[in-house]
């Protein structure tokens, strides 16, 4: 039994998901004739209360398209220091859109409306033009933390006052919705564009969707094409998304529960310095200074348990759909032996 807890992206489609994929009705999506892609897009647009949705091969491409839709070269986007768009999209913001990021050092990946106001550049020609604010929920690098919705509302007001776009990187919005008992509609109401991933907690092999109203989304399909993200019979992939929306959202609670249980066990170990608060499916922890990160990872790997380091002494465990109860019990019992 191999227990892979490096990421929630390691899941493979279940039998039932595969069967839904095999039965999909498909067509050429470049002609917009794939009924399953169209169904997935319509369903998600309705779910978030947006006029349009567009299916993408990756979350990175959906985010990069959003950045392009909201900005002109030379502009600046406000985001957290640990934002995915800044750290993990290969510098795409500058490469694709010619924009820079104004970083806010938020708390647990979240910043305040006041910090946004302070980060907006003055309206003078020699400043970079601030045109977009980007929020990540849950905040990946900060340990899957959920935003406070009231703060998002306040930031929205700031965006309106300063004529700024508002984009949500909702790669793991599903985890936040379940953990905080919020609705997709609430997010649709405040953000101009939202990217969501189907290939993380929801267990699809591939797929992300960008959502927005018609005006902002007008050029989305052209930009997706420029990025090379047009697909043909993508309905086989969209069918996995439809299956996941029906079956894999509510069960995220199990991932969250197991993550909390793992965190509790880690807290008891003397070799561990701190475990960051766990709200969803990501556990970030730090070893004591005298314990080698490499040795700890190897010790687990020798027992077929795989986790990853995040740099600066932090380690990460992510629970997911393919992490079963048997695996969970085995992991907890192995961690207990580390207490010696
Ligand atoms: C995974 C992820 C994405 C998109 O990543 P892809 O691997 O390109 O699908 C975007 N934002 C966050 C916060 C993520 O965790």
Automatic annotation (TrEMBL):
<comment type="similarity">
    <text>Belongs to the threonine aldolase family.</text>
</comment>
<dbReference type="InterPro" id="IPR015422">
    <property type="entry name" value="PyrdxlP-dep_Trfase_small"/>
</dbReference>
<protein>
    <submittedName>
        <fullName>L-threonine aldolase</fullName>
    </submittedName>
</protein>
<keyword id="KW-0456">Lyase</keyword>
<dbReference type="InterPro" id="IPR023603">
    <property type="entry name" value="Low_specificity_L-TA-like"/>
</dbReference>
<dbReference type="Pfam" id="PF01212">
    <property type="entry name" value="Beta_elim_lyase"/>
</dbReference>
<feature type="coiled-coil region">
    <location>
        <begin position="242"/>
        <end position="269"/>
    </location>
</feature>
<dbReference type="GO" id="GO:0005829">
    <property type="term" value="C:cytosol"/>
</dbReference>
<dbReference type="InterPro" id="IPR015424">
    <property type="entry name" value="PyrdxlP-dep_Trfase"/>
</dbReference>
<feature type="modified residue" description="N6-(pyridoxal phosphate)lysine">
    <location>
        <position position="200"/>
    </location>
</feature>
<dbReference type="InterPro" id="IPR001597">
    <property type="entry name" value="ArAA_b-elim_lyase/Thr_aldolase"/>
</dbReference>
<dbReference type="InterPro" id="IPR015421">
    <property type="entry name" value="PyrdxlP-dep_Trfase_major"/>
</dbReference>
<dbReference type="GO" id="GO:0006545">
    <property type="term" value="P:glycine biosynthetic process"/>
</dbReference>
<feature type="domain" description="Aromatic amino acid beta-eliminating lyase/threonine aldolase">
    <location>
        <begin position="4"/>
        <end position="286"/>
    </location>
</feature>
<dbReference type="GO" id="GO:0008732">
    <property type="term" value="F:L-allo-threonine aldolase activity"/>
</dbReference>
<dbReference type="GO" id="GO:0006567">
    <property type="term" value="P:L-threonine catabolic process"/>
</dbReference>
<keyword id="KW-0175">Coiled coil</keyword>
<keyword id="KW-0663">Pyridoxal phosphate</keyword>
